[in-house]
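Deliverable D2.4 — example input (structure tokens):
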């Protein structure tokens, strides 16, 4: 029994049953916050200055964020209509799910993956179909293709997979997409694309370049590699008519002028920002290797995070990190995701992880 107070108005049953969104813990002054896959670097002064120069706060922003669209269109070699900007890539994902999948429809994704997927499917009124990851924490694309039915309207694939880390290879994705009916949306969620170093990883830009799969939409974000999580700006590349449908479900004017300007400034400063991404990726590789050395079965880590498969001991292990001032993201009964943060946090993570691994069964 819960003692939550009754909702005073009639709410859709599936929404009333949803647990409230739980954000990763905020860190105190002494702690490292490694729970939300954020970028540990402060924003570049030039990006901050450009953000502050954005249009006056008493004016609405450009609803379509056209300057940023044009810039990204040029960069990806697509038409402006093939780019859509959102207040974070998660808001675009919500639009795509709303546009394609209502009551009686199915949305397929791997599990465990990004926690928003089941939530977005349920809020749209559709049925979430979860396909278990393989034992090495990768997408099981054969099983995902086999799960497609006449009711399937969308399939979401996440590469690198949050929270476990492995990528889907180009060959795996190419074979998979051939098995998806051409009127079923495939979302390639590449929130962590810039951190990928595996040479055989799928690249959404390359998938779209051929033009052979108008049902594929690629999602990317300025939250991770570009360090703008607090400003909320992400984008989709795909077929203009598919993006139009997403746009029809969007809350108008949710991308601020400040977010658009900071994203443009970040693209101008890309070389410097990608240098930081390289630093984080190197730190990640060092951390994953040392954790494996210590006895953890860390799967391939291609995002800005590593996965500790702590199973039934997850809450105890997370408590040990917490006590040491390391805020991590535990998934009870399954594992712990640790973001690659400040250099000084790496030694600390290793020390705690090595000390608790000995107690695991
Ligand atoms: N996709 C994945 C896989 C993510 O992990 C996240 C953020 N945690 C997002 C999308 C959303 O990112 P944002 O809305 O900040 O662009």
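Example output (designed residues):
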């Amino acid at each position: 029994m819960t003692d939550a107070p009754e909702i005073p108005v009639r709410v859709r049953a599936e929404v009333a049953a949803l647990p409230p969104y739980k954000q990763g813990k905020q860190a105190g002054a002494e702690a490292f916050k490694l729970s939300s896959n954020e970028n540990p670097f402060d924003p570049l002064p030039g990006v901050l200055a450009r953000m502050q120069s954005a249009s006056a706060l008493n004016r609405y922003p450009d609803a379509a964020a056209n300057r940023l669209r044009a810039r990204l269109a040029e960069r990806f070699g697509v038409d402006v209509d093939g780019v859509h900007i959102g207040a974070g890539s998660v808001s675009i994902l919500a639009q795509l799910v709303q546009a394609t999948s209502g009551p009686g429809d199915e949305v397929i994704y791997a599990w465990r993956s990004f926690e928003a997927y089941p939530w977005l499917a349920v809020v749209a009124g559709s049925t979430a179909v979860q396909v278990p990851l393989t034992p090495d924490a990768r997408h099981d694309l054969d099983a995902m293709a086999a799960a497609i039915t006449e009711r399937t309207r969308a399939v979401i694939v996440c590469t690198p997979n949050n929270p476990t880390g492995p990528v889907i290879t180009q060959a795996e994705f190419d074979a998979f997409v051939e098995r998806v009916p051409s009127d079923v949306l495939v979302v390639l969620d590449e929130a962590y694309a810039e951190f990928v170093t595996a040479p055989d990883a799928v690249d959404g830009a390359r998938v779209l370049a051929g033009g052979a799969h108008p049902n594929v939409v690629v999602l990317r974000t300025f939250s991770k590699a570009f360090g703008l999580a607090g400003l909320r700006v992400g984008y989709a590349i795909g077929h203009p008519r598919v993006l139009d449908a997403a746009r029809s479900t969007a809350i108008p004017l949710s991308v601020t002028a400040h977010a658009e300007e900071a994203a443009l400034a970040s693209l101008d400063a890309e070389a410097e920002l990608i240098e930081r991404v390289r630093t984080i990726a190197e730190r990640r590789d060092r951390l994953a290797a040392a954790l494996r050395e210590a006895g953890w079965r860390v799967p391939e880590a291609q995002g800005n995070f590593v996965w500790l498969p702590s199973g039934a001991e997850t809450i105890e292990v997370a408590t040990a990190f917490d006590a040491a001032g390391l805020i991590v993201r535990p998934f009870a009964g399954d594992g712990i995701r640790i973001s690659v943060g400040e250099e000084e946090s790496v030694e600390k993570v290793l020390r705690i992880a090595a000390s608790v691994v000995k107690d695991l069964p």
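The chain has a mean pLDDT of 95.
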